[in-house]
Amino acid sequence: MPELPEVETIRRSLHPLVVGRRVAAVEVRRGDLRRPLDEGFPRQLVGRLVLSTARRAKYLLFELENGRSWIVHFGMSGRLLHRRANTRVGEAAGKHDHVVVGLDDNTELVFRDPRRFGLMLVDDARSCPLFAGIGPEPFDRGTFNGAYLKGLGRRTRRSIKDVLMDQRVVAGLGNIYVNEILFACRLRPRRRLAGLTRSQCDQVTEACRSVLREAIEHKGSSISDFLDGIGRRGGYQFKHEVYDRAGDACRRCGTSIKSVLVGGRSSFYCPVCQR
DNA sequence: GTAAACCTGGCA
DNA sequence: TGCCAGGTTTAC
To answer: What is the DSSP string of A118-186?
Structure first.
């Protein structure tokens, strides 16, 4: 599920609810996520004050007073929901509510993840191995720009879609937004990066920023069930030009949107608008 | 490069 | 019943 805009939406919804709160209790109901939860996880979190929140790539971070962070990745189906604790006595936890983090104001954060592709841990964000190989943030014009992409292109035969999906190249993009970005800069997903001009590479990085910015403004894409930290749906799914629109008319030229597999992932494009 | 693995749910 | 899904990692 969550790509950069969804993680940022969750972060913004939770930020005012968690900053200044202290973790009162941690309940691990199922620790076998993508990586098994460290047995010391509750101990590392309980009693800690939340100073702030941050996002790196598709990871959400709760920065703690001791310099470490509670780091969460949502995989495909993960969610983090804030709610009042003990709203009803005996209320059964949901089948997929794997971790519950209680705060000191009688609220709690519930990590719900049916597919269990998510992961979480407590670590120092500056040295966390998870972040070691992650590429630049797309909004960082200084490092993520046409010159950077063009430089990569000189030594690869990879498609532009494959390159943009690669978290080592640029952080936070996934299948939905790469499809939308390639529509915005009018390139087909199978185009080779090496064949793009410097100007086209500039356009790609600018398209990344404009699509992501607009997606964040619309609070992300709720494809089937994405919700932010307080249960609100996003609205960017109604703005998708190509993603999951195979057979529908391109809103720009009316041509039927096509679907192909690139790198094993469904890719959608307009055969007239994108070349 | 591509396929399959991890896991569950939804849909045709 | 079979296929697909917002991600990531590992193996041919």
So the answer is: -EEEEE-TTT-HHHHT----TT-TTTSSHHHHHHHHTT---BHHHHHH-TTTSSS--HHHHHHHHHHTT
- The proportion of chain A whose per-residue pLDDT surpasses 70, expressed as a percent, equals 97
pLDDT for residue A92: 61
The spacing between the Cα labelled CA in A177 and the C1' in C9, in angstroms, equals 21
Distance set, CA A120 to CA A35, A78, A258 (Å): 8, 11, 37
Q: Tell me the β-bridge partners of A119.
A: A73
| Interval A255-262 mean pLDDT | 96
The reply to whether the predicted model has a pTM over 0.90 is yes
Gap from A216 CA to C11 C1', Å: 36
Of the candidates A97, A96, A101, the one whose C-alpha atom is nearest the C-alpha of residue A60 is A101
The residues of the protein lying within 7 Å (CB) of strand C read A 1-3, 6, 34, 57-58, 73, 75-77, 115, 117, 130, 167, 174-176, 221-226, 265-266
Q: What is the dihedral of CA A140, A192, A265, A236, to 10 degrees?
A: 40
Average pLDDT in chain A: 95
